[in-house]
């Protein structure tokens, strides 16, 4: 089915649309803020709550600290956003806890993901941060470490050849867990140019180790289910997932069974329509652009209840 432009719906169509979901799960970067808050996003979530929907946030970005997230949510006028947020670092930590993991995690991750894992009591190993210019020096990175029981990849900007040697060496043991957080092969930095994301390194290791990672970031189904569990939601078909990235956000929606709304912050309608396999159910320019649209529904609701009250009198 071709994506439907929410902005072109009339009030009665919007009411039908609103009846199809109870929960809103939203991505953050590119939807609520870029460097600054995107106008109207906070108000959009307020409307959704007024319309009886629960609101939660799901991001692939484990790099931000709690304080940084809290500041961004506050600037966007969203209360308790951090408490309602799911990111890969927490998903990885909870997953390891759920399998009673008690060995060392080799972290090819951002520092914050390692902080989260350590805060759960896990022992982490990382590095080296730099390699040398001689292949012969790399033999040391081919040495196994029996204490390592998991290799985690999640947005490591300092990923390098030695780390990849180590990861592949550990993953040669089939009982070593292979876990990935953010999968982004590309990131929207500059329109019209190809911007590689750190997920590309996970793919190289996956290919060379001949292992598929357990995906605890978007678009992994397990991550979508983890976000549902945290939000206390049991039926994925009653969730509307909002995002700005086709592969990650629409992909997660498709994998988990959510309805999807793509905001066109980083894609043109042509990009969206040209995608061969992933199409959102709905699209809009931005969340702010939907505020006046849903205000109309709210006003119509108020009118109806006023009329009802007058009749009763
Ligand atoms: Mg995004």
TrEMBL record:
GO cellular component: a single term: cytoplasm
Protein residues bound to substrate: 59-61, 218
Metal-binding is among the record's keywords: yes
Tagged with keyword Magnesium: yes
Cofactor: how bound: Divalent metal ions. Mg(2+) is the most effective.
Alphabetically ordered keywords of this record: Hydrolase, Magnesium, Metal-binding
Active site per the UniProt annotation: 27 (proton donor), 29 (proton donor)
Gene3D superfamilies xrefs: HAD superfamily/HAD-like
Cofactor(s) essential for the protein: Mg(2+)
InterPro entries in alphabetical order: HAD-like_sf, HAD-SF_hydro_IIA, HAD_sf
GO MF terms held by the record: metal ion binding; phosphatase activity
Signal peptide positions (record): none
Binding positions for Mg(2+) per the UniProt entry: 27, 29, 244
Pfam families with a match to the protein in the record: Hydrolase_6, Hydrolase_like
PANTHER family: 4-NITROPHENYLPHOSPHATASE-RELATED (PTHR19288), RE04130P-RELATED (PTHR19288:SF4)
Family under the similarity heading: Belongs to the HAD-like hydrolase superfamily.
Protein's recorded name: Phosphoglycolate phosphatase
Organism: Papilio xuthus
């Amino acid at each position: 089915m071709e994506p439907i432009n929410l902005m072109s719906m009339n009030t009665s169509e919007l009411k039908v649309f609103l009846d199809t979901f109870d929960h809103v799960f939203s991505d953050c970067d590119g939807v609520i803020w870029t460097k600054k808050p995107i106008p109207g996003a906070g108000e959009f979530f307020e409307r959704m709550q007024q319309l009886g929907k629960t609101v939660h946030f799901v991001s692939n970005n484990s790099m931000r600290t709690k304080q940084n997230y809290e500041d961004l949510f506050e600037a966007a006028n969203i209360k308790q956003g951090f408490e309602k947020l799911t990111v890969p670092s927490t998903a990885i930590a909870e997953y390891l806890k759920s399998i009673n993991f008690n060995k060392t995690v080799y972290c090819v991750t951002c520092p914050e993901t390692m902080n989260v894992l350590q805060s759960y009591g896990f022992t982490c190993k990382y590095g080296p941060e730099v390699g040398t210019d001689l292949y012969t020096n790399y033999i040391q990175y081919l040495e196994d470490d029996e204490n390592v029981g998991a290799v985690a990849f999640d947005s490591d900007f300092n990923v390098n050849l030695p780390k990849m040697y180590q990861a592949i060496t550990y993953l040669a043991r089939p009982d070593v867990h292979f876990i990935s957080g953010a999968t982004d092969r590309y990131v929207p930095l500059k329109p019209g140019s190809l911007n590689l994301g750190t997920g590309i390194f996970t793919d190289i290791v996956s290919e060379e180790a001949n292992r598929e990672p357990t995906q605890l970031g978007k678009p992994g189904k397990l991550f979508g289910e983890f976000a549902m569990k945290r939000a206390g939601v049991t039926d994925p078909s009653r969730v509307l997932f909002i995002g700005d990235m086709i592969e990650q956000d629409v992909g997660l929606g498709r994998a988990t069974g959510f309805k999807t709304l793509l905001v066109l912050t980083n894609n043109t309608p042509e990009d969206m329509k040209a995608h061969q396999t992933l199409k959102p159910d709905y699209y809009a320019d931005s969340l702010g652009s939907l505020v006046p649209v849903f205000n109309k529904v709210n006003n119509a609701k108020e009118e109806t209840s006023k009329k009802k009250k007058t009749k009763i009198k």
